[in-house]
C-alpha cells in the first residue's frame, strides 16, 4: 500500500482524538449510547488506545483514539499511529482533536505506520487509511513519507544487494524521476580524477563492487546546497577487522548516503528553490591483498596527508575527498551525513541525531526545526582544543586518534579540515533498535526532516 492519504470522501468514518485530560469533555460530545459504550470498555485515552463506537446496525460508526497524558506525549512520537493497526479497513477522517494537537505530525505518523520492508518477505500493512486532515500540507506529508520509505529501504537492504553499484542505481533512479543529472567516477578512474582516499578505502573490494563517487545535480535557481553522504555499503573494518558483534549491522554503514538521498528526494519533489548537488562516495571496506594498511600515509584530494592508525576509521577518509571536491566550488551551505562514530551513539543514544555546525545561526535553525517536525537533533561542539588530537607526528592528520576520547568531535574536526564554510555535519545512527509507533525496527531516517524544515533559514 502506498504511503499516501485516502481520497476525500463523505463516507469516511469519524475519528476523535482524545487525551486523558479532555476525556470527559470528549465523551460528553458523543451520542449518549456511544459515550456509555466507551465508558463501559474502560477507555482512558492512553497513547494509541482505541475504542470502536457502534452504530445502530452494529457496524462501527466511528472510533476514539487516545493520545496519552502529558508525560507520554513528551516522551513519544507519532503516538496516534499505534491505533492504525487496530482500526478496521476503510477511510477514516479526524473530526476532533485537542487544542494544540499537531495534526501534521499525527498524519505523518499514520502514513509511516504503513511502511513495510517487503523485498524478501511479504508484510501486509494496516488497511485503515486516513483522509488528510484539513489545514495540513498533505503533499508535503506524503513526500516526506516517501522520502523516509526510501531511506529505510536502502538501509534495510543487505549488503549483498546494496553494494556501491546498487547504491549508484538507486541514485540514478531518483535522478531520472526528478530530472536531475548524474555523473559517476568508478574504480581506477578515481585516481585519474584525484579521489585517492575513496580509491584507497574501496580498492580491496571485487571489481563488481568497485569504489565510486556519485555526483547528482538538480535545479538552476536559488542558493547552492551541497549534500555529502557516507556510502560505505559494508564495513568489515578492513585489516583492523571488526569482531562479529560489531560487524552485524554494518549493512547500515551507508545510512548517511541513504539519508542524503531521502533529503534530496524531498527537496526535488517539493520543487525547493535551490541548486542542489549531492556527493556520495560509495565503497565497500573489504579485506584483500589490496587493502590499505595501518600506518599507511594517504594524500587526500586537497593535498593534506593522513596517517592511518585504524583502517576501521574509513568513513572520514572517503568523506574527506568528497568534501574537498565541494570546497572547490563552495555552496551557500555544505552539509554531510554519516553513520560515522560509535561515540555519537554513546553520547546521545540512537534516537537523537547529533550534529556540528560552524555557525550558531545554523545550529539554532536546526534545533528549532527538529522540535517542530518531531525529528530530534542535538548540537555537539567543534571543540578547538581537540584539534591537536588529530595531528600525528608524521602527517598532517590522524584518522584515528589514540585514547578513544571525544571520538565524534575529533571525527567532525577531521572533516572540517576539508569542508568549505559554512558547514554542518550530522553523525547519525540510522537504525531503530526498538519498535515504536510509525518507527519499526530497522533502517531509519534521522535529521533529514529537520534539515528540510530549516532550509529557508539555513540557505538564508
CATH superfamily membership of the largest domain: Zn peptidases
> How many domains?
2
Number of helices: 15
Mean pLDDT value: 97
GO cellular component, one term: cytoplasm
Keywords: Aminopeptidase, Hydrolase, Manganese, Protease
GO molecular function, one term: manganese ion binding
GO biological process, one term: proteolysis
Outline:
By secondary structure, the chain is an alpha/beta fold. 33% of the residues lie in helices and 20% in strands. Belongs to the peptidase M17 family.
Overview of this structure, please?
The protein is α/β, with parallel strands linked by helices and 460 residues long. It folds into 2 domains: 13-132, Leucine Aminopeptidase, subunit E, domain 1 (3-Layer(aba) Sandwich), CATH 3.40.220.10; 143-458, Zn peptidases (Aminopeptidase). The protein contains 15 helices and 19 strands. It has helices at 23-28, 32-41, 70-75, 103-112, 138-156, 164-178, 189-192, 196-202, 244-247, 255-269, 315-327, 342-348, 360-372, 407-416, 448-458; strands at 13-18, 50-54, 60-66, 90-96, 128-130, 181-186, 212-218, 224-229, 231-235, 275-285, 297-299, 305-307, 333-338, 353-357, 377-379, 397-398, 423-427, 431-432, 442-443. Strands 6, 7, 8, 9, 10, 13, 14, 15 and 17 form a 9-stranded mixed sheet that branches. Strand 14, helix 13 and strand 15 (377-379) form a beta-alpha-beta unit. Helix 10 packs across helix 15 and helix 13 (360-372) packs across helix 15. The longest helix is centred in the first third of the chain and has 19 residues, at 138-156.
